[in-house]
Each structure stands twice: as C-alpha cells, then as structure tokens.
Amino acid sequence: MSTPARVRADACPGVFATHDAADGPLARVRLPGGAVSADRLRALASCAEDLGDGNVHLTSRANVQLRGVRRPGLAGRLAEAGLLPSPSHERVRNVLASPLSGVRGGLADVRGLSAALDRALCTRPELADLPGRFLFGFDDGRGDVVGTDVCWRAIGPETGVVLLAGADSGWVVSRDEAGSALLAVAEAFACRRGSAWRIGELAEPSTLLPDGPRAAPRTRPSRIDPTVGRIQRDDGGEAVGVAPRFGQLTAAQLRTLADFGDVVVTPWRSVLLPGGADVEHLRAAGLSTDPATAELSACIGAPGCAKSLADVRADAATLVADGQRVHVSGCARRCGRPSGPHRDVVAEPGGYRVDGRWTSDLADALARKGPS
After folding, report:
1. Beta carbons of 60 and 46 less than 8 angstroms apart
2. What's the CA gap between 340 and 113, in Å, rounded?
3. CA 165 to CA 356: how far, in whole Å?
C-alpha cells in the first residue's frame, strides 16, 4: 500500500492540544489498556464536573474525552492523579488490551503489559513524535484487539506472535518480551514512516522487524466476547459490564462505578467491573447492564459538532438495535463508527441514509432488516 499524501498535520486531540468543537475545547485522556483505578475514576469525575460539561465520553480506543473544557487547570489535575505521566508523550500513549483477559477466557493473561509498555514508552524521547493515531495492542489470543498497528497476540500462556497492521508477521516473542518487541517496531516505524500515520500505509511493513527466523504466518479466528451484563469469571466469581448510553457517563455515574473498585474501559464504549457490582444499584444510577444498549452507538452530533447535519443522539434515543450493531453518524466522516459489521446510518439534509438507502423516517428504516 502506498503512503497517502498528507495535506494537514496529525490533529488527534490530547490534553494540551485540544480539539475546538462546537461545544468548546475537547480533551482526550489516554488510558493504556483501558485500566482505571477507582481513585482515578473519581479524579476524572471531578475534572468533568469542575472544568468540562459534567460528563465523560468513552472512545473506541478505550480512552475518555472531556468536552466543553473552558477552564484552565486540567493538565495539572490529571498529572496529580497519575493520568498524565509524561506531557511530551501524552498523545502517543495509545494501547489496547483484551478487556476480559484474566477474567474470562483467553490463552494468556495480558493484564499489566499495557502499563509496563506505557512506562517504557514514556522514557523514550524518540517516540514522543509518533502519530497520535499509532496504536499498540496486547491480545490474549481471542483476537478482539488485533486491528492495531503493532500487536502481540498470544498463541499460548507464555508465547505470542507480533502482528503488523493485523497480519501475522511470523515473529514469535515470549510474553515477558512482548512490550520490548512492540516498542522496537514503533522505533523502526518512527525512523522510516515518512508521512505515514499507520503501519498499514507502508509498502513493506515487514522491514520494521529485526532480522531473525520467522514461523509460518497463521490465520486464527477472532471473536469479541460480551463485555456487558453479568459475566461469570473463570475463578467462579462474577464480573459485571455496564453499557452507558452512547458511551456517555455523568460525573455521578463515574463515582458510582468507582464505589465498586477498579474498572476496565473497553473499545466498545462499555465499562467492565472485574470484581463485580450490585446490578440494582447500577440501574438506580441510570447505568445499563443490558447488552442491547451497547449495540447502538452514535457520534456526538449537533449541537456539539458544527459539521453534523442532525442531532443524531436525540434522533436515535428511542431506537432499539434489535440484535444488530447500529451506528448513527451526523455526517459522512462517520466519527466513532465500530470496526466490525454494523448497520451504517448517516445524516443527510432532510433525513438519513441507512445502509446506502435514503429515508426520511429513521425508525421505519431500521425496523427493516438490512445488510450488516
């Protein structure tokens, strides 16, 4: 694949380089591996309440965003909470990990690998200028986060293979060396990327690998296991997954989650409580544990985004996904759309285009089964 010509700089938002949205500055806070302690949840809640619009918005990379940040002091408060360990690296701390690892299923336990990689990443000045879209991954063997730039995917409890842009490179690496291997690839990419933002844009991604023997590349099935509802742990206990409506949590709801301990934010805009929770208490706080809630997603839409042609969240508020993934976008950019199969709904003047067909009645169009 040839590298696309870039006509603008990488504008991925962070804490220092915010995005000027219609509802005010938007700040993105990275959560490597999606793991967040209860204390840090409370810190995010306070930041949203005191400095932003009062809500925390989950992203498809298991990060969070604060919108309407018009008051100063966010960076200092995040740093004090341990959520901003390196100002120079804050936009490149993009790490996904299998959310259910160590809880249910998987060939290896990848918990802790994201945090270790993050610490090492922040000590390497040469990686501070990686594109904000560059993404690391640790997959426990089920294949739920393999669509990253560079990923370690388990093939056994202590062994895995390095994937480049989702493809098996044949480079077999132990679990203990997984983080070092991914950082070595990132360093090679930083030196050779030219104007590329992602490894998949390079003509020969394999040139990023060190010399050495390679196993035959293998194709393995992938699956995304449910992260919402009551989830039986492998140790006999129970975890609970929450699906906030459109991935949006109030400050009060964040504090409710923190009452049950540390959490894992997933790439599907849900929140996993590995230690379990009182489901009725969650529901009383307006937090859904119904998997159907996670099947319907939408961009921020109007009035938060000036490019949106509709208030998509208001229009989608009464819809039911009915067992199929649906994403509603306010314009052709389709911000926040899921990577897997889904029904594609895009706002146009006077209506929506659903699975490529124009309609003025969104609910009626979605009631008719279409392609996924």
Report:
1. no
2. 25
3. 28
Q: Which amino acid is at 307?
A: K
Contacts of 254 (CB under 8 A, 6+ apart): 41, 42, 44, 45, 48, 56
Q: Within its chain, how far is the Cα of 306 from the centroid? A: 23
Q: Angle between the 178-192 and 113-121 helix axes, to the nearest 10 degrees? A: 40
What confidence score (pLDDT) does residue 336 get? 83
Residues 116/179, Cβ–Cβ less than 8 Å: yes
d(CA 274, CA 179): 24
Region class of 23: left (phi > 0), else alpha (psi between -120 and 50), else beta:
alpha
Strand order in the sheet with 326-329: 296-298, 326-329, 343-348, 351-354, 357-359
Helix (H) or strand (E) holding 169, with range, is strand 167-174
Residue 366's H or E segment, with its range, is: helix 362-367
Collapse the DSSP code of 116 into the 3-class scheme (helix H, G, I; strand E, B; otherwise coil) and give the result.
helix
Euclidean distance between CA atoms 151 and 85, whole angstroms: 23
Q: Which of 31-40, 53-62, 262-271, 307-316 has the lowest mean pLDDT?
A: 307-316
d(CA 268, CA 41): 18
| Phi, psi torsion values for 236, nearest 5 degrees | 95, -10
Distance CA 293, CA 296 (A): 6
- Angstrom CA distances, 279 to 245, 258, 332, stand at 16, 14, 38
CA distances from 358 to 316, 338, 353 (A): 16, 21, 4
CA distance 320 to 92: 36
Round to whole Å and give the CA distance between 130 and 92. Answer: 6
Report which DSSP code applies to 215: P
CA distance linking residue 231 with residue 153, whole number of Å = 23
Arithmetic mean of pLDDT, 183-198: 97
Q: Which helix (H) or strand (E) holds 47?
A: helix 38-51
Structure confidence by residue, pLDDT tens digits, 74-111: 999 999 999 999 999 999 999 999 999 999 999 999 99
Q: Is the pLDDT of residue 250 over 80?
A: yes
Q: How many CA atoms lie within 13 A of 311 on its CB side?
A: 4
In the chain, the amino acid numbered 102 is G
